[in-house]
Design brief:
- By secondary structure, the chain is mostly helical.
- The protein has 3 domains: 97 residues, no CATH class; 103 residues; 183 residues, hpI Integrase, Chain A.
- Helices cover 51% and strands 10% of the residues.
- β6 and β7 form a beta hairpin.
- α8 runs parallel beside α13 and α14 packs across α15.
- The chain is elongated, with a radius of gyration of 28 Å.
C-alpha cells in the first residue's frame, strides 16, 4: 500500500553557509525516498532547537521564521489532501516539483533581493545591481539593521506607510523617496512574476508612488553660457580641467551624449565623419554627423586611443576589463570632471552648477529654444519615447510663459 508523504522543515546541519549559519530545508519523505529543498533562510545552530525542530525563543526573527514554516507546511498539506481525494499517485520529487510550479514559493524578501543582485552582477548589469543593493540596504536600515527575514506578504499598505514615515523623519526629499519606492515596487513585481507572492497582495495597487513630487529644477545653460565654457582659455589650468572642458564640449556638440557613453567610445564608433553608437542606458542606436570641432577633440586624444583602445582617457582596455571595474572607473572620473566643471563655471561667473549632465540638457534646451521639433530632439538624445523628452524639457519654460502673459496687456 502506498504511504502518504510527510513534510517537515529542519535545520540542515550537514551544510554550513559562509555566514556560519545552516539553511532551513523542506524535507518531503515518501515511500522511503527523501527530497530536500531550501526554504530560502538560514539560522545559526545555537538558535535552533533540534529536538523540537523549531527556532529557539532567543532566535532572531523567530516569529517571521515560524510564520514562514507554518505557511509552507499548510501549502504542502493542501497539496497532499488534493492527492488523497483524487487518489493520485506521486513521488517526493514530483510533489516538490508541482508545488514549485503552481504554488507560491517559500522565499524571504532577503533571499529574493540577494538573488536579483547576484543575477544582475553575473550578467554584467552592474548599475542595476547597485540600484537593488541600495534598495535592499535601505530596507535593512528600516528593519533596524536586521535581515529581511519575512515574506513579501508582510509588505502591505501599512508597511509602506510606515516606510514613508521613516523616510520623512529623516528629512529625505521626495525624489529620493520615490527612487527607493520605485525600486521596491520593481522588486515586488519580480516576486509576483516568480510566484514568490500572489498578485492580489500587491500593495502598490493602492499605495500610489505618483504622489511623490519628483520634479527637479531643470539645469540648462543658455547658448552664450555654453560657448563661454567651450571657448574658455584653459591653457594655464591642470590636465583634469582641460579634460573636463573637452568632455563638456564633445557632449554638447554630439547630441548631448552622456558621460558613460563617451567613456565607452572606441575607434569602431567612428565611421567616416559620423559617430555611431548604442546608448549604454537604453541600447538605442545613435547615428550623427561629427562637426569639425568634435573631430579635433577625437584627434587630440589619438595617442591615448592607440594605447587604451578608447577614444577618451577614462577607460583602458588592459586595466578595466570587468563590468564592475568599468562602472567604478567611470563613476570616479565623472566625479572628478564635475568638480573641475564647477570650478571652471565659477571662474567664468556662470551661476548654474555645471556638470556633464548639464551639457546634455543644454544641448536639448538650446535646440528647443531654436524651434527644433521635439521629436528630432528626442531622437538625438536617444530617448525611448517622446514622453521622456517632454519630461526632460518640461512643457514650457518660464521665459515662454512670461512672453505669453505679455499679450494680456
Amino acid at each position: 500500500m502506498c504511504m502518504e508523504a510527510t513534510v517537515n522543515i529542519l535545520c540542515y546541519k550537514s551544510k554550513t553557509l559562509a555566514n556560519g549559519e545552516n539553511p532551513l530545508m523542506i524535507r518531503v519523505c515518501k515511500d522511503g525516498k527523501k527530497k530536500y529543498l531550501s526554504l530560502g533562510i538560514s539560522v545559526k545552530p545555537e538558535h535552533w532547537d533540534f529536538k523540537k525542530n523549531e527556532p529557539k525563543l532567543k532566535c532572531p526573527n523567530r516569529k517571521h521564521i515560524q510564520q514562514l514554516i507554518l505557511n509552507t507546511k499548510v501549502e504542502y498539506q493542501k497539496r497532499l489532501l488534493e492527492k488523497a481525494v483524487n487518489e493520485e499517485e506521486y513521488t517526493s520529487d514530483t510533489l516538490v516539483e508541482e508545488q514549485q510550479k503552481t504554488k507560491i514559493k517559500a522565499c524571504t524578501v532577503d533571499s529574493f533581493y540577494q538573488t536579483i543582485i547576484s543575477d544582475l552582477k553575473a550578467k554584467g548589469n552592474v548599475g542595476n545591481s547597485y540600484a537593488y543593493l541600495n534598495s535592499y540596504n535601505m530596507l535593512k536600515s528600516f528593519n533596524n539593521g536586521k535581515k529581511l527575514i519575512y515574506t513579501f506578504s508582510h509588505i502591505d499598505v501599512s508597511f509602506l506607510r510606515k516606510y514613508e514615515d521613516w523616510f520623512r523623519e529623516r528629512n529625505l526629499k521626495d525624489t529620493t523617496i520615490s527612487y527607493h519606492f520605485r525600486t521596491l515596487r520593481a522588486t515586488y513585481n519580480k516576486a509576483i512574476e516568480s510566484k514568490v507572492v500572489s498578485a492580489n497582495k500587491n500593495p502598490f495597487v493602492q499605495f500610489k508612488i505618483s504622489k511623490f513630487s519628483t520634479k527637479t529644477q531643470k539645469r540648462a545653460l543658455s547658448k552664450e553660457e555654453v560657448w563661454k565654457i567651450i571657448d574658455a582659455d584653459t591653457s594655464n589650468r591642470n590636465s583634469d580641467s582641460i579634460l573636463a572642458q573637452d568632455i563638456f564640449t564633445f557632449s554638447y556638440l554630439c547630441g548631448g551624449i552622456s558621460f558613460v557613453d563617451i567613456a565607452n567610445l572606441t575607434s569602431a564608433n567612428i565611421v567616416g565623419d559620423r559617430l555611431i553608437y548604442a546608448r549604454q542606458k537604453t541600447h538605442k542606436p545613435i547615428n550623427l554627423k561629427l562637426c569639425d570641432k568634435a573631430k579635433n577633440l577625437i584627434e587630440k586624444y589619438n595617442q591615448y586611443s592607440k594605447e587604451a583602445a578608447y577614444l577618451f582617457p577614462v577607460l583602458h582596455i588592459d586595466r578595466h576589463t570587468s563590468p564592475m571595474q568599468k562602472k567604478n572607473r567611470v563613476h570616479k572620473i565623472c566625479h572628478a570632471i564635475n568638480k573641475e566643471l564647477r570650478l571652471l563655471a565659477k571662474s567664468l561667473k556662470i551661476k548654474t552648477e555645471v556638470t556633464t549632465y548639464v551639457a546634455r540638457h543644454s544641448f536639448a534646451t538650446v535646440l528647443k529654444r531654436s524651434g527644433v521639433n521635439i521629436a528630432l530632439i528626442s531622437e538625438a538624445l536617444g530617448h525611448s519615447d517622446l514622453a521622456t523628452t517632454q519630461i526632460y524639457l518640461d512643457s514650457f519654460e518660464n521665459s515662454q510663459i512670461d512672453a505669453a502673459m505679455a499679450n494680456l496687456l
